[in-house]
Design brief:
This protein has 259 residues and is of the alpha+beta class. It contains seven helices and eleven strands. It folds into two domains: 128 residues, Jelly Rolls; 83 residues, Winged helix-like DNA-binding domain superfamily/Winged helix DNA-binding domain (Arc Repressor Mutant, subunit A, Orthogonal Bundle).
Length: 259
């Protein structure tokens, strides 16, 4: 999913001012056209005849080790990042040092959208496992988007999806009981894994129970208690980070009154 950009950072410098590679040029690896995640990424709705042009927005690829930050809150906004492999959380830290998790992102999804408004990253993005991302300088996205309208439309679609996601989080934190919050969270993960061709009922939770609680506005003890209750009621089979949804319909029924 990478090729040499026509416009971008100065030669020898990557998207954050670091060398893009030992040769000073972007890596040539999987192209957007051949990427398995294309349908969920920024090039998803771009016609085949425009793909070669759109591939120029990928300036470099970067490997992020588990626990490392792709970017930190307050960093200048320069790029969007497409997750090729791996899993990330975004979070903020308040003045007392308490972390608030604001989202979880998996392969095929974009990071960095929150920097569009103020020109600085609003949150930090931390890898929850060894991950690979494609860096796309926003100046390139704007430039090529003027020549390829389908890319611009796709960007607007992704932005709208983020707005809907944020509204969903507000609903979670504002009106749902703990059981409903956790059921919604698990069903959302299930659908996202399914869209990528993975099992909708069995997957690993890359985040900790504490991270889940922070995101859902629940205490760690509450998350553990609700998971245990789901298991006792035959909804889930939980073993450490491995989760198997035994009764998807049962979780959906829990939320039926809200639909």
């Amino acid at each position: 999913m990478s090729t040499v950009a026509q416009i971008g950072p100065p030669r020898g410098m990557g998207f954050s001012g670091q060398p893009a590679s030992s040769t000073g040029t972007p890596e040539r690896e999987v192209t957007c056209a051949k990427c398995k995640l294309r349908e969920t990424c920024l090039s998803g709705d771009v016609p085949a005849e425009d793909l070669e042009r759109v591939e120029n927005i990928v300036y470099a690829r970067r490997r992020i080790r588990r626990g490392e930050a792709l970017f930190s809150a307050g960093d200048p906004f320069r790029s969007l990042y497409a997750i090729r492999t791996g899993f990330f959380k975004t979070s903020l830290v308040d003045r007392q040092g308490r972390e608030q998790v604001t989202g979880f992102f998996m392969s095929g999804e974009l990071l960095g959208m929150d920097g569009l408004g103020e020109g600085r990253c609003a949150a930090s993005a931390i890898a929850l496992e060894d991950s690979n991302v494609c860096a796309m300088p926003y100046s390139l996205i704007e430039y090529i988007g003027r020549e390829v309208p389908s890319l611009q439309r796709r960007l607007h679609s992704v932005l709208a999806r983020e707005i809907v996601r944020d509204h969903g989080v507000m609903l979670l934190l504002g009106s749902m009981r703990a059981e409903e919050r956790l059921a919604t969270f698990l069903l959302n993960l299930s659908k996202r894994f399914q869209r990528r061709g993975y099992s909708e009922s069995e997957f690993h939770l890359r985040m900790t129970r504490k991270d889940i609680g922070s995101y859902l506005g629940l205490k760690l003890e509450t998350v553990c208690r609700v998971l245990a209750a789901f298991r006792e009621n035959g909804l889930l089979d939980v073993h450490q980070k491995r989760v198997r949804i035994v009764n998807i319909a049962g979780l959906e029924l829990m939320l039926a009154g809200r639909n």
